[in-house]
Amino acid sequence: DMKKYSDKTANMLVKHGIKKGDKVLLILKRHYEFWFTILALHKIGAIAVPAPNLLTTKDIVYRIKSATITAAVCTAGTPSDRVDEAQKQCDELQTKIIVNGPKEDWIDFTSEMDAAPEQFERIITDKTDRMLLYFTAWNTVDCSAAKHSHTSHEYMQQKGNRKMSQVFNHF
CA-CA distance, 105 to 98, in Å (whole number)? Predict the structure, then answer.
């Protein structure tokens, strides 16, 4: 099921302009669509930017501008309202996809995913391509981006006897 639904999600994301290297903000609480979306983004070669649903509009603006985020997949309600407010200050954000919608000016995740083809041809990625981008704090104070490639975890396992600061300095 994960392959089927992540392939359908990947097809839906590509249909709406998400491509390799794009950064996509994910504010999905604990919805199962998070797992379909993060796997789909990996298949596309896009960069997932997971974020908590407690972010303020200011926090979302900071993330969009500092990371050049072009799309958001978001839970309906307060999180999507804050993304709408942030978009007024961010020309970078072009695509908004809503889970548990519908909502005006948003793409409905469920109906679009259901209509998407079940097979997706994975985009070739290099082991050094970025895969995830985490912000190190939930707000904008003392917040920086931690970037992870497809080999970040492997590298840390290989360098297990080194101090963590030495490992992170590699990136």
Answer: 10
pTM greater than 0.85: no
Alpha helices in the chain (DSSP H): 2-15, 33-44, 57-67, 78-87, 109-115, 152-158, 164-169
- Write the pLDDT tens digit of every residue in 76-135: 999 999 999 999 999 999 999 999 989 999 999 999 999 999 999 999 998 888 899 888
Helix (H, G, I), strand (E, B) or coil at 156: helix
**CA-CA distance, 170 to 150, in Å (whole number)?**
14
Q: State the amino acid at position 164 in one-letter form.
A: M
Q: CA 52, 48, 131, 7: dihedral to nearest 10 degrees?
A: 130
Radius of gyration of the chain (CA): 16
